[in-house]
Design brief:
Elements: H1 2-11, E1 13-17, H2 25-34, E2 39-43, H3 49-59, E3 64-68, H4 73-82, E4 87-89, H5 94-102, E5 107-109, H6 114-122, E6 127-130, H7 138-146, E7 153-156, H8 165-169, E8 177-179, H9 185-189, H10 193-210
Parallel strand pairs: 1-2, 1-8, 2-3, 4-5, 6-7
């Protein structure tokens, strides 16, 4: 978990990907790798998710490919069997979190209340997701909530883009940010992978400049 967290911190941004068609998986992975963000949280919102994770992991073994929007232990199993290296859930589901910890699978559950953070800390977690970041109060909420929990860091996702990335990444409690602005669904469907690579490179450059 710590080694993975260090990689997330160095990247600064984790692309959150929704893939409707598995044929787009490898070209998208290539665009992300070439753009400087060899990482993807592939959401389990579509039937193509598991196969897409498998194809991306096979094409780029060193890429940090994980599964997002994981709601059940069955999805955990499917994601890991497909090659996912980490699990992200939108909320704090004790069953899913405990299952991942038991199997030593890196898991980043969503936490937007002190009670949820307390449950994460109780289980020894040091990094949690904060979702949906902007509607839930953004960086001020994270700072206020994190104050009593000095050992926890956050991966805010939801409403984050190039315009507010600096605000978030400047926070000392922020490990990295999840975002989809460089991998928007319409760009993927249009096969605009050159544009995705360009936006990815801009996102990585921006993240590096903030944390230089």
């Amino acid at each position: 978990m710590k080694a993975m967290a260090e990689r997330f911190q160095k990247l600064g941004v984790v692309p959150v990907v929704v893939l409707e068609n598995e044929k787009d998986a490898v070209p998208l992975a290539e665009a992300l790798v070439q753009g400087g963000l060899p990482c993807a949280e592939v959401t389990f919102r579509t039937e193509a998710a598991a196969k897409s994770i498998q194809l991306m992991a096979e094409a780029y073994p060193d890429m940090l490919v994980g599964a997002g929007t994981v709601l059940t232990t069955e999805q955990v199993d499917l994601a890991v069997q497909s090659g996912a290296k980490f699990i992200v859930s939108p909320g704090f589901d004790p069953e899913v979190v405990d299952y991942c910890l038991e199997k030593e699978i890196p898991v980043f559950p969503g936490c937007i209340t002190p009670s949820e953070v307390a449950q994460a800390v109780k289980r020894g977690l040091e990094v949690v997701k904060f979702f949906p970041a902007e509607p839930a109060g953004g960086l001020p909420m994270i700072k206020a909530m994190a104050a009593p929990y000095t050992g926890i860091r956050f991966m805010p996702t939801g409403g984050i883009n190039a315009a507010n990335l600096e605000e978030y990444l400047s926070g000392d409690k922020i490990l990295c940010c999840g975002g989809s602005w460089m991998v928007k669904g319409d760009l993927v469907k249009a096969g605009a992978f050159d544009k995705i690579r360009e936006l990815t490179a801009e996102a990585r450059k921006l993240a590096d400049s903030i944390r230089k």
